[in-house]
Structure formats: structure tokens, C-alpha cells
Amino acid sequence: MAAFEEMGVLPEIAKAVEEMDWTLPTDVQNEAVPLILGGGDVLMAVETGSGKTGAFCLPILQIVWESLKDIQLGKTSKVTKEISPLWLMSFFDRDAGMAVTPDGLRCQSRDPKTWQGARCTKGVTGKGKYYYEAVVSDEGLCRVGWATPQAALDLGTCKSGFGFGGTGKKSNCKQFDDYGESFGLRDVIGCYLNLDAMEMHYSKNGTDLGKAFTLRSEFKNAVFHPAVVLKNAEMSFNFGATEFKHPPKAGYVAVSQASKDCTVSSGVKGGGDKPQKLQNNAPHAVIIEPSRELAEQTLKQVQMFRKHLDNPVVRDLLVVGGIPVKEQIAALNAGVDIVCGTPGRLEDLINTGQLSLQSSKFFVLDEADGLLKQGHECLINNIYNSIPKITSEGKRLQMVVCSATLHSFEVKRMAIQRWSGHPIWSDR
Q1: Which stretches within 45-131 are classed as H helix?
Q2: Smallest Cα–Cα separation from 360: which of 334, 391, 402?
Q3: DSSP state of 206
């Protein structure tokens, strides 16, 4: 028990381990558990009986439980605080499916069906001419611009939000009109706000696209925040802390240079003051196994480790064929934190929207060589590409891959070419 606690394992989990007659961690556990608890990716090649299932189930269970506990206590994630003097995209004034990086300068949504929005932590009001840049850093549907604190997070769909979308449309109050031209990957969109003339306009890669909106008199003393809404896309922002790719035209300054009397900080709730809602069908961890038997064994390990964990309880679900799908859908709707399953049934539930990947902190491939031999490489890549690489808490997605050998070309290629992280290679 003491040996596991020294690695940072919770006493409640260490007690369960002791009751399983595990006296000391195996070699792979000794390396993998601290790495996963520390936020790292792990790629391990281990033999049967080496303790590799415990090596990833134990730390994943702990992190998921700690996340649930933080939510229960109303704690926010350990990311840059909302009261920062810097201009950042908000960790609070956003939709639940919108991820914001810890530096507050990149937003990403991997939801392919629903628009996810966010606003900046600060806004401008009164007078002056302001500018910021937004870059499309991953292909998808984007709309960027300005919004008041009262506006819908779905930018451009209410009277208080003004957006310019990648399809070449400007939008306000659900009215979408042709404007400028379309934009996409790596394009730099300049967002201009002239409070003196009550106008907004945009630029693309330094080319002015002309006036987009004339603001009505009711907005004379309104506060305008930089804002964005995305669908399966990513945008990066520069509010003036670094040199702009395309400096604004004469008379305009970066929003971060607005005077104190023209700068307003946001509150911590957005979208009409509605708190973020967690999705019951969005587990924190997705574990894929090549067979039903292995999925059952892995889930059994999770259940044994969580024996003494309560308040909150970590909810798990076996997602395999041979079980009525209605039962699995009902369990997902009731709330699930860890899902362990086989490719076919997982694919069915994901494709039909019954299983959401928007809250995933962990993506685990057990017996990866077996999964690839069964022909699931395309499915694995599709699932991976659908998971946000930055979680809604501002942390990066963690990958854990187990393989019988590191000599498999397919496993190496998938690890190196497909994933954004840098796996820790552990050959035991």
C-alpha cells in the first residue's frame, strides 16, 4: 500500500490494491502510473501478466474521480484565472463543448453537429477604434467578431452579436448576408470595431473587406467583447500582446491597449447567465479493447480499484455487442464517467450521437496491435480526430496505448503520425 501511495496514488485506491494482494508495483506500473498521473502520454509494450491493465486503469480512475470531486465542490480547473490582467478567451463564458487552452489564446470545438461559442474575458466600451486578429488554425466552420455580454454564445444569431463566417457571410440577429469572401485554414481575420463611428468591419490576410455593420443607437454605451463560435474547428487569437501578422490601419489600436476607462472585465457566466451543463453521455475516459472478454476484464479492474471511492461515485459502462443497445443508451443517458468497449458497438453509439466524446480526458487503446490487425485503424483515427485535443478544463488529451510489441510498424506509425502528444516509450 505504501509503495503505491508513494507514487501519488490515493489512499482509497491503494487500500483496494492491497486487498487484491498487490504488495509492490510491477515494473510497468512503476513507470506508467506516475507518468499518467503527471499528465503524460504512455506507449507500453508488455507481456500478459505484467500488470499493464492496472498501470493505466489505476491512474485514470484517480484522475476521473478527482475531476468529479472538483465539479462537486464547485472548483474550477487549474488554468489561468478569470481575473487575469491579460486579454484571454474565457474559461467560463463559453459553451460546454468549447475548449480553451490554458493561455487563453486558442479555442477548439470537436462537436460536428452543434455550434460552440466563447467570449473574451474583457471588452471595450465608450469610445475608440479597436482591432484583434483571429487565425483559423484547424479546418472547420468558424464565425468570429464582437458580442455584448447579453448576446447568445452562438455568435450572430441574436441582436447583440455580430459575426463574420468562413462561408463569406456576415450575421446578426439570424440574418446571414453575403460579405467579403470565404476564408479557411491559416487565413488571418482582422476584426475592427469603431466606437466613434459606431461601425464594424473585417479584413482577410490584411485586405480590408469593407463595412460590415453599422451599430444602432441602442449600442452607444454597450460593452463589446471579442467572440467566436465554432463547429468542429479551431481558431487562435491575438489581442495585441504580440506583433500582429497584419497591423491594423491607421487610427486603430489593439484591444489590449484600450484605456482603463474604456475596458470592462466580464463575469464568470455566459449565454444569458446560464451555468455550463455537463453531458451525461460524455465520459471522461474511453478505453477500446479488441474483444468482449478483454473489455470485461479491464472494466472489472476499474471496479475493483474504485471499491473504496465514493462521494462521488465513478460510473462505468461496458459497451460491447451481445448486450441490448437500449440498455447501454439508458446507462449513457443516466450518466457515465468511464466507458470500456469494443470497436463495433462504440462506433454505433458514437455515430448515432448516443455517446459524446466532448468531455474525454483519456483515449486508451489496449492491445493496439490486435486492434490494427482486425482492421480498425480507420475507426481509431476517426474517433481520435473527433475528440477535442484540449479538454474543457484547459488540459490536453492524454493517450495510453498498450501493445504486445513496439516492433509493429502500424503501432509506431499511428503513435508518431496521428497523435499531437509525445508518447513515453516504455519497453518492459
Answers
A1: 52-73
A2: 391
A3: T
Alpha helix segments (H runs only) across 195-324: 292-305
Q: What span, in angstroms and rounded, lies between the C-alpha atoms of 85 and 342?
A: 47
**Which of 316, 364, 389 lies closest to 68, judged by CA?**
316
Rounded-to-integer distance, Cα 215 and Cα 194, Å: 10
DSSP state of 139: S
Provide the strand spans (E) within 250-406: 253-254, 263-265, 285-288, 316-319, 338-341, 362-365, 398-403
Q: What's the pTM value of the predicted model, to 2 decimals?
A: 0.65
Phi, psi of 100 (to 5 degrees): -125, 130
- For residues 268 and 121, give the distance between their C-alpha atoms in angstroms, rounded to a whole number: 9
- Please list the residues that pair with 156 across neighbouring strands: none
> How far lies 215's CA from each of 179, 209, 226, 421, in Å?
16, 17, 16, 44
In contact, 80 and 71? CB cutoff 8 Å? no
Per-block mean pLDDT, blocks of 10 residues, the chain (428 long): 86 92 89 92 83 94 93 63 73 84 89 91 96 95 95 95 98 96 97 98 98 96 96 96 96 96 70 50 94 96 94 95 93 95 92 84 92 89 79 78 71 55 37
Read out DSSP for 96-115? TT-EE-TTS-EEEE--SSS-
Of 119, 109, 209, 200, which Cα lies nearest the Cα of 168? 209
What gap in Å lies between CA 363 and CA 350, rounded to an integer? 14
pLDDT for the residue numbered 398: 92
3-state secondary structure of 321: coil
CA 160 to chain centre: 27
What would the DSSP string read from start to end of 173-188?
A: TTEEEE-S----TT-E
Predicted pLDDT of residue 356: 86
